[in-house]
Amino acid sequence: MDDQLTLIQDTREVLGYGDLFSIPYEVGTIETGDYSLRGCETLVAVERKSLADLVGSLTQDRRRFEDEMKRSRLLHRFWVVVESSPRKILHGAYRSAASPQSIWESLVAFTVRYGCFLFAHDREYGAKLTQSLLTKYYQQHVKVVQAVARATKGKS
Fold first, then answer.
1. Domain extent listing, the chain
2. How far apart are CA 12 and CA 109, in angstroms?
3. What's the pTM?
4. Does CATH place domain 7-153 in 3.30.420.10?
5. Rounded to an integer, what distance in angstroms lies between the CA atom of residue 109 and that of residue 113?
6. pLDDT tens for residues 100-115?
7. Three-state secondary structure of the chain
8. How far apart are CA 142 and CA 156, in angstroms?
């Protein structure tokens, strides 16, 4: 962990947020999720989902997505940022034969099993939310660990 806050965007992220971030970021490999903090990739991550991607992840790619969600439980914090609103899901504003009720209930089931899904209106808000989540995590957790490490360094 270093003293400079730097976001990491996974190399497999196709339509990344990097150009929308207002703080430093770099592209790197993240095992779980699409975004993390440099030096904290095994502690915290954010998974980005467009509405189409979310629907696909809850239907035809469900096994792969559930495997990722299971891996996410090994992290200290993990969020899924959905670039949509619940209203669009409930009104079926997506291209899929899956019923809105089925998608909604799957989303709720995954939330109960694995954790937090957060809705961001679109890609711009998704980027803002992702940056804010990771920045706040850094401020509240990483800096505390660094302070404890510095304080105990002189006592050993």
1. 7-153
2. 27
3. 0.89
4. no
5. 6
6. 999 999 999 999 999 8
7. CCCCCCEEEECCCCCCCHHHCCCCEEEECCCCCCEEECCCCCCEEEEEEEHHHHHHHHCCCHHHHHHHHHHHCCCCEEEEEEECCHHHHHCCCCCCCCCHHHHHHHHHHHHHHHCEEEEECCHHHHHHHHHHHHHHHHHHHHHHHHHHHHHHHCCC
8. 21
